Amino acid sequence: MTESTAIPAQAWSRPLGEGYEPAPRPRVNQPMIDDGPWGGAPLGGIGAGSIGRTPRGDFARWHLDVGQHRFETIAPSQFSLFVDDGSTRRAHVLSTIRPPELPTWGFDVPVGAGSYHALYPNAWYVVDWDALPVRVVQRQFSPVLPHNYRESSYPVAIFETTVENRLDAPVTVGLMLSWQNVLGRGGQLDGGGGQHHEAVQRDGHAGLVMGAPSSAAGTAWDGQFAIAVPAETGIGITTAPCFGVDDGAADLWADFAADGRLDGSSTGLTVGNAGGHVAGAVAATFHIAAGGSRTIPFALAWDIPQAEFGVGTRWNRRYTSAFGTSGRRAWDIAATGLRDRGAWSRAIAAWQAPILADPGRPDWYKGALFNELYFMVDGGTLWTDGPPMPADGWVAPPGADPAAGGPFGRFAQIECFDYPFYNTLDVDFYASFARLQLWPELERAVIREFVASVDTDDPAIVEIQWSGKPAPRKSPAALPHDVGGPFDDPFLRVNAYRYQDINIWKDLNCKYVLQLWRDARALGDDELLTAAWPGVVRALEHIASFDRDGDGLPEHDGDPDQTYDTWPMSGPSAYGGALWLAALKAAIAMGERIGEASLEGYREQLEKATATFEARLWAGTYYRYDDGGGPSSESIMADQLAGQWYADATGLGDVVAPDRVATALRTVFERNVAGFRDGEMGAVNGTRPDGSVDASSEQSPEVWVGTTYALAAFMLGRGMEREAWQTARGAWNVTWNRGLWFRTPEAYDGAGNYRASLYLRPLAIWAIEHALATRGR
Fold first, then answer.
1. In this structure, are residues 370 and 120 in contact, taking their beta carbons and an 8 Å threshold?
2. Which DSSP helix (H) or strand (E) runs through 462?
3. Which run of H or E residues covers position 279?
4. Is the peptide bond between 22 and the residue preceding it cis, with omega within 30 degrees of 0?
5. Residues paired with residue 209 on neighbouring β-strands, in sequence order
6. Which residues are bridge partners to 65 per DSSP?
7. Pick from 288, 61, 337, 252: nearest CA to 164
8. Which of 211, 347, 370, 407 can bridge 196 by disulfide, Cβ–Cβ 3.0-4.6 Å?
9. Closest CA to 616 of 606, 605, 627, 608
10. What is the C-alpha to C-alpha distance for residues 473 and 493, in angstroms, rounded to an integer?
């Protein structure tokens, strides 16, 4: 068994091409992305634009245009296999799809003729079909490596294909990667002509380069694709640099199916202006002795150096710090991938091995822990190098600092493509545990964005979608919901969200203070705390202004004014109150750390607020949803003590009475986890004291994947190991067993139907890892 064919037992697996029935559907009326149960591990580096390949074998998820989602099978982009056993020649596309566009191609691999496995950033396609004299194991990966700020950004994918001869006679094998040139596709530029495709033999590799259409010149879609294979002894590498696909590409398939090679008569071709969709292909042909095997690596790379947002500003992607901004280095990126793939593979194995070997972690958790990292690449991610290139006539909005960004660039992930906001603070509060542990400099870059945003004043009036009322886009001292959206620019105008008025939200400022404390403590960055301190003071003063009765706790006003933005709170709440207590305690810890003398006011506030919290919200076995007489006032909220969870995770100690924390967690487990759908679906957000589900709002009867993982981390840190693993397992069970793999949603209901797939918050599974690493300290 080789490194390429050794599939860890903890990898998530599925029969090749098998979906899920009945497939989960969006549970709300507004349009939601629904790609069906065909998510797969993405290819590409962080912030480089990503390409998703499904468990059917086709390339179908396209996130090359930053902030935009496109799910579409590009039929000619496939791996294909030719086998000649001396008596029979056959050729098959290694995919279970049946696209009508290519009627003569050998799309005949049946569903279930093998298996798909994923342990991100690795994925494996196993074709074990009795109609073939060979068994095929293809491993794919990109160099997404922890604590690596160079190779982790590269737009490259490695495919190591091992072909095992099952016969007692030699066979001739051809392996072909064909690829449609989709450059310009997001901008509707493809097919317009002017693409230059060229066969290349250089650096000990052979293959081809495909350039963008001429109409893409000067746009963010200018760039290249490259396919490369090592020019090793015993491997014949042939190319078809350019072929048309609109007519079915029958000639290309007949050429490959004849002998596993390509004609190769043309080394370069520029498509005329008449255009049409075009592709290229590279084939590797080799012999395998009886009972033997051989592994052939392919590299696919793309060089699309600029990311462009709605206002026309462009940013150089992070990988350009290594390969420049010409858009003409795809071949060099592919060659680098082939040269360094062994080192990358060993680094991935070394990272994952200790976790995979630990008997204290369940195997399902190990698989989910790594696979949920798909969102680091697939989350509309931008990672920059250098300042932006503004569009003609563009003027920076108030408070924008185009020159901001440290030595590792600027970084942003989308909340989801249905809710297109970047670095959504209330959500990232949960998700950012993944960044902090694996790419801490990226977390430092994100928290700096929020430090800079505290005093931003954007008085533009927006209409609040929930109420129809007008509100300023962003007031000073109110933390923004997000750093911006793809239709503006996520680094240059904060707060694209307008569903609710964020200027009156009660959780954002508290979460900011807690995340800042957590990050500075983990990073050992007291300079960050010192620089942020004046804004922390103003942020807390802003929340204190909502304490209208002087009892120490801020009041909610009956509108959803926190991350549960369709679930209203009235008066003081458990969720908002616990976050407020923890934020006050974090401010005291910050001030003590950086030598601030005037902290007595915070201590007095904390003492008063704590007494009020216990007196008004403790219900005997849990903390009430709120104390304002609203429809959910007596409900048991799964996330009621999120503030205490963060206090535990950041060394702040007890925020509320520890015996009550234990009792509340047991109640949440009994009612919201074990009492909901046989305990197999995670933690439902709200239940009534009689055990029924709180159905008073859209969000109260939902399970949120990210908050379920956070709750499990909280339980684990408090010694509730059995309850923690059962809680987390429910979220894994629905996501990975019921058709939501590699499109983990924000929420689902008791039937498994979802809201907002491809969501940021489920990265909170890494909070469990944080709890495992820090408990007992």
1. yes
2. strand 458-463
3. strand 278-288
4. yes
5. 198, 226
6. none
7. 288
8. 211
9. 627
10. 10
Q: Which helix (H) or strand (E) holds 529?
A: helix 526-544
Question: DSSP letter string over 9-36?
Answer: TTSEEEETT---SSPP-BSSSS------
Whether the bond into 534 is cis, omega within 30 of 0: no
User: Strand pairing partners for 443?
Assistant: none
Q: What's the CA gap between 147 and 464, in Å, rounded?
A: 40
Contact 608, 618 (CB under 8 A): no
CA-closest candidate to residue 496, choices 432, 415, 562: 415
Q: What pLDDT does 184 receive?
A: 81
CB atoms within 10 A of CB 662: 14
Q: Which pair of structure tokens corresponds to residue 477?
A: 């001292």
CA distance 27 to 750: 10
Would you mind telling me the total number of residues written for the chain in this entry? 777
Q: Whole-angstrom Cα distance, residue 65 to residue 411? A: 16
Report how far residue 406's alpha carbon sits from residue 402's, in angstroms, rounded to the nearest whole number: 12
Q: Is 530 exposed, middle or buried (0-12, 13-18, 19+ CB in 10 A)?
A: middle
Cα within 13 Å of Cα(159), Cβ side = 26
What does the block give as tokens for 345? 């593979």
Task: Count the neighbouring beta carbons within 10 Å of the beta carbon of residue 13.
Answer: 17
CA atoms of 539 and 73, how far apart (whole Å): 47
Residue 570 phi/psi, 5-degree rounding, is -130, 140
Angle at 490 between CA 488 and CA 495, to 5 degrees: 80
Of residues 18, 262, 300, 16, the one with CA closest to residue 137: 16
C-beta atoms surrounding 10 within 10 Å: 23
Angle in degrees, CA 657, 659, 664, rounded to 5 = 95
Edge-to-edge order in the sheet of strand 42-43:
42-43, 50-53, 59-63, 70-71
Instruction: Give the 3-state secondary structure of residue 763.
Output: helix
- 463, 473 contact by CB (below 8 A): no
Low-confidence ranges of the chain (pLDDT < 70): 1-4, 186-192, 272-275, 393-404, 776-777
Torsion of CA 105, 108, 112, 116, to 10 degrees: -10
DSSP 694-757: --SSSSTTPEEHHHHHHHHHHHHHTT-HHHHHHHHHHHHHHHHHTT-TTS--SEE-TTS-EESS
The answer for residues whose C-beta is within 8 angstroms of residue 21's C-beta and 6 or more apart is: none
Burial of 355 (0-12, 13-18, 19+ CB in 10 A): middle
Among candidates 646, 587, 581, which has minimal Cα distance to 433?
646
Question: 731 near 638, Cβ under 8 Å?
Answer: no
Q: Per the structure block, which two tokens stand in for 439?
A: 């790419």
What pLDDT does 333 receive?
Answer: 98
**Strands in 628-699 per DSSP E:** 636-637, 686-687
- For residue 376, the surrounding DSSP H or E stretch is helix 374-378
Q: Is 299 helix (H, G, I), strand (E, B) or coil?
A: strand
Side chain identity, residue 412: A
Angle at 138 between CA 134 and CA 140, to 5 degrees: 175
Please, are residues 625 and 569 in contact by the beta-carbon 8 Å criterion?
yes
Q: How many CB atoms lie within 10 A of CB 250?
A: 12
